[in-house]
Amino acid sequence: MDVSLVIRHKLNELGLEQRDLATAAQVTESYISQLLTGKKAPPAAHRTDIYEKMEAYLKLPSGELSRLAELQRIEELKGKLGNPPTPLFKEVRELILRKCALDKEKQIRAIFEKQPFGELERLITQKLLDIAKGVAKKELESEDWLREVARLSNQDYAQIRVTILEFLETDIFHLSIENCVSFLEPLIESWDIDLETFAIEIVLNNRVVSEHIKKLEFAEKEPEEPVEEELGLKEFLHDTGLSSDATKEEIAFLRKLRFKTKRPTPLYYYRELQNLRDPLHFRMQCFLGNALLGSFRPGIDLPLGKERNGRPEAVGVRPVQPKGE
Question: Closest by alpha carbon to 8, among 42, 36, 41?
Fold first, then answer.
């Protein structure tokens, strides 16, 4: 049994019309009609709130439509796996190129045109789509945000909700002109790519997105070899007289210390902790409100108190002391 059949059955049973269901689900009547006639596939349950609204309105058990939708989508996906990818619509490609940084557009266009839908074009399209989808999914429950995007794309509120549901379902091989007009166009200001490292910077429209810039980088890293914890560190941590007031951040710092031949003692870690806390060992910045005044100079910008063990002690700074000293 598929989703559309269950919905039609409940509508008939309750004596309801498609327009009633559309109002309850906050989508257009046209969308409901296409969903029930199979012209549109049911959206993925984890990407939409439409099933919850429909289940409540049709008095169905919670999760029933979501479960059926996932089963139906799995069956439909099995039939599509063998189909080869098709190139982007010309208008979609032009929009993506138009958003490209001006100094790269000619070079990127030449690469795109070598293949109908080559590796670089797929990579860039996928990243732009991922970012736009992330924004749309995050803001799906925000009526103010939906109305602003609707205004920018010349749609009404119900239409933009339908468009979002369809947009969250699409992939790079089925990206439509409507998807671009509704989301990629208003959400993305520009993008740039480093063709050596493939790092991508995407600038978003700050009128509708709070996070203005997204940076995606691809870096090769050697796998970190597991390092056995130093015996001296274990003993230091076990000795509460040395380490009882050490914070998690300080212990994490001590664990990152590496040694080639010499093996540190507990006293080494204790002194390292003292050095880490001593303000005389670090250059500090002085701020007044939001204005940066310059580097901090112990004894000049902050008065020093009496000497302790032959060294000046900054006022208000408590040096680390082993218990019992």
Answer: 36
Q: How many residues appear in the chain?
A: 325
Closest to 186 measured CA to CA, from 216, 145, 158: 145
Q: What CA–CA distance (Å, rounded) separates 72 from 249?
A: 49
pLDDT digits (tens, 9 = 90+) for 78-121: 665 555 555 567 888 888 999 999 999 999 998 888 876 778 88
pLDDT of residue 293: 44
pLDDT at 83: 53
DSSP 88: P
- The residue behind tokens 């919850």 is 52
| Most confident range, picked from 64-73, 135-144, 236-245 | 236-245
Contact 312, 305 (CB under 8 A): yes
* Domains within the chain, CATH numbers bracketed: 3-80 (1.10.260.40), 90-216 (no CATH), 231-314 (no CATH)
Where residue 294 falls (left for φ over 0; alpha for ψ -120 to 50; beta otherwise) is left
The amino acid present at 248, given as its one-letter code, is K
Q: How confident is the model at residue 164 (pLDDT cuts 50, 70, 90)?
A: confident
